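Morning!

This is the sequence you dropped in the shared folder:
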Amino acid sequence: MPSTEVSERPTVHQLKIELRGLRPPVWRRVRVPSRLSLGGLHEVIQVLFGWDGMHLHAFEDGRHAAWGPHRDPLGGALDSGWDDEDGVALADVLPRAGGRLSYTYDLGDDWEHRITVEEVRPAGPDEAGYAVCTGGRRALPDCEDVGGVWALQELLERYEAGERPEPVTEEDGEPEYDSHADYVLARMFTTGFDPARLDVAELSGALERLPLVTVDGVSAAGEQDGRFPCPSCGEWHPLPDEDGAELGDLITEALDPDSRVAPAIRLPDDAELARQVRGAEHFMAAVRLGHWCGAGRELTPKGVLRPKLARQAVEEAELWRAAPDEWGDAAERRRRLAGIRSAADMEPVRDPWEWALLAGFVEVSGDGKKASSGDALPDEQDDAAVLAAWQETLAGTVADVFAELPEPVGMLRLMSGLDELLAQAPPVGFGLLLHCYGLPEGEWADASAFFDEALDDLPDDAAGELLSALYMVQWEEAAELLVRFGAAEYRPEDSPPGDEQDGDWLLIGLSAPAPGRFRLTPLGRAGLRRLLVEAGVMAPVVGRMERAEAAELLAALATYRSAEEVRAEVVGWLAARTPADAAVQLVDACGGTEGADALRRLMAPLVLEHLLPAQRPGESDSPEDTEPDQRRRVRAVLRKAAASGVPGCAHTAASWLRRIGDPAEGQDAYGREWMCLDGLYAYADGGPEAVRARLEQGPGAGRGCGEQVAELADDLWRAGHPHGEAVLTAVADSLVHEDKQLAKRLRKAAFKARSAT
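The structure's back. Tokens below.
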């Protein structure tokens, strides 16, 4: 059953640590021993970002488990309620690539850092005991106690604008400033602070002098509750944090809370996806503008390109290609641009400039006088770099749109009931994206119908109408943005004549838009899939399951759209392992007593059928001594599992042994009744309709589910299933109008199941 073997081989974690909320982003890349304690990681972060260590801090994962110090920075005892950070290793909390953790320093200013595991690998010579900074972006001033990330952002903007604070007095020749923030700003000028200069070697030197605190007995990776495996990359990803307005939060809120598996989709290979990115002219204009800036282009005091340079950029970086219908005529383009006196008013420049700054393709010097190519600028010929840059830019811009609804203006903010509605407003627009992700490839979503249903519960008053309008405004902005990224196709519908005159819409000062039809492109599906995976959702890709764990395979098969796809995926998965190894992995994956575990067990026969075909009616079993050696080994695996008594594993094995005409001794009903209840349990939370749909399934390799329930109704309570009473009650409720007699028998069985426990 599940392995408990602990790896003794030293490993290292490569981490990317980002200080959240700053634009341009500030981050560090560091390599540390996997056995580093979280307390030791705290010390590393303090060095990387220049903190003084005078405030409290805490780590938190996506399940709200928290770790921190048990003494305050001054040495006093601390009754915090969180677990001791010195007693847990980094590999215990983040065992695999893709894992994330939140680190907050100064629980007043709340400097939040996001820690992402980029790689876990065996330690090389002299790596296991050291921390090394291997990269990063943007320097930080000595900004302790300035008031948090928003105050720091304001300081950096004041610094770039050349705003020197004036001292209010001078004491003993030392200037005194009106606020600590002004003091920090003044020091930035006197020290010649350069936000674009990060000395990685200096950080590594400081880390060399840092004694690392490690924890012995790091647990093996991959056995962590609350983490979900990705079928294509083979890594495990944690549940997303639930604080803040990031994409992981949007996904978590928009998804069914019990659903952590997205529908399986087909995707082109990375080379084709990169080709599609290069066809997204609005995005590529920002990339070309970044390369055009090169070593430096002069800016006006307002931080935009000088007009002559802006006109030059339109031609040399071919920015006009983003709107060829409007700007494609060279002579007309030059004539129109010649009359515009500011780059901020030049349409072909405005959006690429904004995107290039947001994505880090362009960086502005500390004195605000020059713009140069940024560190995040991808090589246009590098498929992986272009695709990654597109994804990062998409994630940031989509998050900006969907994180918050548009702000009501003027007196509308005071509308009665609006605050309560806004506080409870779900991410409906992002939910439509997830809905489109699950549609068959090429199928359009009726966005109008989706919004009508999603917003049906809004109150029928002015506040409800305003919230509906805000959703629509947000959606139109998002849809247009996704189209410009090459991620979607959108066909808005014209509002019927007279709709804009509706009294409720006039009351709130907006016209009612009609969302129209919408669908994701293959590139858009690939982008959304990556966001799903980063948020802890398993998002399978058809044809990429050979290296997947058995649990991943079984969870993914439930989302496939055709029997042909399932069969091809199973055959490919089995081809990568011996039958006996496949059987061991498969049975191990069937353990557990929750709904997701039950759903995996429902898929197990689709794989077992290829290992040991079920016996057909009227068919006699072949003598075991004439059976191929590999099949005998699979049979032995199932017998051992059936005798183990491990919930789920034993029942799956016993059930299949019965199906092949070789029931485990004394285990015939053990597999049969238990698995009958288990198959229903996977659907019980879906309500009566879901249960009835399950009862109608079959017959497959055996009797249909409804037939089995009718036959075994009086004995199902004996199975000892941990959720037997709830399942029997749910099935009885679903049948009360269709088969009252059977419903009555099932209620009696539910009562016996409760009494038996």
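Headline: Residues 263 and 559 are 5 Å apart (CA to CA).

More detail when I'm at my desk.
O.
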